[in-house]
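$ ./design --mode recover --in tokens.txt
reading tokens...
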């Protein structure tokens, strides 16, 4: 029960802190919402400053980068993951599979960078693809009508072979007609090493060849551009949205549940996403609010302990003569 003290303030009848009016509660709520909004703006502003891409994250809608048929892993791109995307301005900013294999550079548990790009010759509105960059083909070649794949110079010699434009086997990295590279992949849900042959003849003779990246999903059995010389040409830098940098696992499943796509998800628990990703998401959705409540409760409890400690400290240091002065009559005291 509260009582109104002199000056119009309300205080609890048990001597505790004054109760807040409805207006004060509203102002505190507005303050909290404002602080939360500012924090969100700071987070997304920082992400944009780092990535130079908006939106700075993408939701992975299919399992083409998974390393298992049914299980998701931290550090691997799985269906339902949120992936941070950093802008790419030149081909030199992307480390390909063959370059990464030579130097030991890895991202997402495999060699080289993963890029997010618009499929060449696709129509507006086509969903971007997130796959690994296998190699970069420079065209036209500085040495003839073929292509140059200079990154092969850093790729182990035992893991690739090539033919020159004259159809003869070569160990050169310039004026090539085709190349075969040994690739680490997970098409059956387990690690395999498969020879992937890429023939540039069809693109060159048709006039559709462009300098760009040959790409591949870790979970796919073949490179993205189809059979030799068929399908879309290599991905030019102008079609790249960015390269993948970091992930927030499984939280993208919320978006895919609310707004399903062709790749995922027909309701909660859809089997197109790893089972353990759904379980991890459900656990997170429980633990996050509980954690926030416990943190808030712990802060309030610690604040009460601190106030109690301060009150005892102040009482302990009060000068002893204060009590004597109150008991001793003053000169003009009529007693």
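writing sequence...
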């Amino acid at each position: 029960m509260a009582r109104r003290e002199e000056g119009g303030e309300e205080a609890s009848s048990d001597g505790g802190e004054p109760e807040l009016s409805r207006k004060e509660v509203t102002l505190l709520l507005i303050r909290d919402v404002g602080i939360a909004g500012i924090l969100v703006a700071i987070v997304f502003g920082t992400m944009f400053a780092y990535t130079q891409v908006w939106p700075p994250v993408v939701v992975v809608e299919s399992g083409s980068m998974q390393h298992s048929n049914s299980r998701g892993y931290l550090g691997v791109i799985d269906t339902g993951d949120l992936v941070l995307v950093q802008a790419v301005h030149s081909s030199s900013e992307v480390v390909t599979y063959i370059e990464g294999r030579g130097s030991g550079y890895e991202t997402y548990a495999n060699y080289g960078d993963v890029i997010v790009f618009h499929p060449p010759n696709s129509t507006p509105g086509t969903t971007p693809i997130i796959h690994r960059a296998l190699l970069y083909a420079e065209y036209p070649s500085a040495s003839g009508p073929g292509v140059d794949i200079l990154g092969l110079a850093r790729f182990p010699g035992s893991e690739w072979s090539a033919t020159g434009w004259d159809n003869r086997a070569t160990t050169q990295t310039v004026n090539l007609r085709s190349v075969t590279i040994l690739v680490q992949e997970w098409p059956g849900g387990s690690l395999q090493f498969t020879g992937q042959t890429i023939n540039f003849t069809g693109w060159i003779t048709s006039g559709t060849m462009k300098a760009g990246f040959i790409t591949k999903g870790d979970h796919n059995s073949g490179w993205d551009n189809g059979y030799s010389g068929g399908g879309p040409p290599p991905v030019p830098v102008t079609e790249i949205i960015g390269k993948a940098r970091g992930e927030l696992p499984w939280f993208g499943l919320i978006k895919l549940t609310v707004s399903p796509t062709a790749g995922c998800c027909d309701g909660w628990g859809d089997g197109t996403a790893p089972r353990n990703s759904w379980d991890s998401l459900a656990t997170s959705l429980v633990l996050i609010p509980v954690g926030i409540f416990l943190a808030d409760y712990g802060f309030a409890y610690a604040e009460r302990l601190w106030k109690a400690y301060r009150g005892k400290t102040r009482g302990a240091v009060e000068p002893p003569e204060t009590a004597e002065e109150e008991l001793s009559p003053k000169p003009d005291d009529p007693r």
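exit 0
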